[in-house]
From TrEMBL:
This is SAM-dependent methyltransferase. It comes from Croceicoccus naphthovorans. InterPro entries: Methyltransf_11, SAM-dependent_MTases_sf. PANTHER family: METHYLTRANSFERASE. GO terms for biological process: methylation.
Length: 259
């Protein structure tokens, strides 16, 4: 039976919701500290965590915002986030099931928006960015974090291939140039960007997505047969663990952009 992209995302993440709350690579990181620092300075009245996943950006935003809305395509993921928010004593977090490309909010609803490791799953990336801009107030702050691909075609192809084998709901990791251009076209003004290297532990990386054994074998085959340039770029280790670049973007919503 043919399924939509949205149903593929829900199938991949719904049953693994608790794993994303517990995942150390999602629950920790310098990017979360940066997000919290920006939120502490901005003190937003309303903040949006777009593609909340395990809710880790929402938890940090909730320390400084009066009200936080955690949005995700997976109701199961949001249910886990609601329980975790209650455990953490964060009653100012609410949840909402929605696609990034079609947000059920009025123009200019939010003062701040965070989107962490979600955009590479969006069916229409450019539309998602435009929606993010639409629901932000003019001058509002947007923080995007995502794994980015290389400008080198061979490295880009390798990353997209292993990502898709691991997770059939994967759409695409964009490179930094694509992010910069798309953000400007969507109505954002970039303030600063920063790249960080993240090491992916192979076993936890595939276990988190319940990657089938046949796909695991294919991933390891691609890694072992990769050219020296690719092996070096991703720092592929003997056990399959590897490193990728994550891009942090801080931007503001332009004051004159359809509002």
């Amino acid at each position: 039976m043919t399924r939509t992209h949205e149903s593929a995302v829900q199938a991949q993440f719904g049953e693994q919701a608790q794993a994303y709350v517990a995942s150390s690579i999602h629950a920790n990181g310098a990017d979360l500290d940066v997000l919290a620092a920006v939120a502490a300075q901005a003190r937003p009245d309303r903040a949006l965590d777009l593609g909340t996943g395990g809710g880790h950006a929402a938890y940090r935003l909730a320390e400084h915002a009066r009200r936080v809305t955690a949005v995700d395509l997976s109701p199961e993921m949001l249910a886990v986030v609601a329980v975790e928010a209650e455990k953490r004593g964060l009653p100012n977090i609410e949840t909402c099931t929605a696609r990034a490309e079609c947000l059920p909010f009025e123009d200019g609803t939010f003062d701040m928006l965070a989107c962490r490791f979600s955009a590479h799953h969006w069916g229409d990336w450019e539309s998602g960015l435009r929606e993010a801009r639409r629901v932000l107030k003019p001058g509002g702050i947007a923080m995007f974090f995502d794994v980015v691909s290389s400008e080198y075609a061979s490295c880009d192809t390798h990353l997209q291939a292993i990502e898709l084998l691991r997770d059939p709901s994967h759409v695409r990791n964009r490179n930094e140039s694509e992010w910069t251009s798309a953000m400007a076209n969507a109505g954002f003004r970039l303030r600063k960007t920063e790249k960080r290297r993240i090491t992916m532990d192979y076993i936890s990386w595939v276990d988190r997505m319940r990657t089938p054994e046949a796909h695991r074998i294919a991933i390891r085959s691609l890694q072992k047969s990769a050219a020296a340039q690719i092996q070096t770029y991703f720092a592929i280790q003997a056990d399959g663990s590897f490193s990728v670049d994550a891009l942090q973007i801080e931007a503001s919503a332009c004051c004159a952009h359809g509002l």
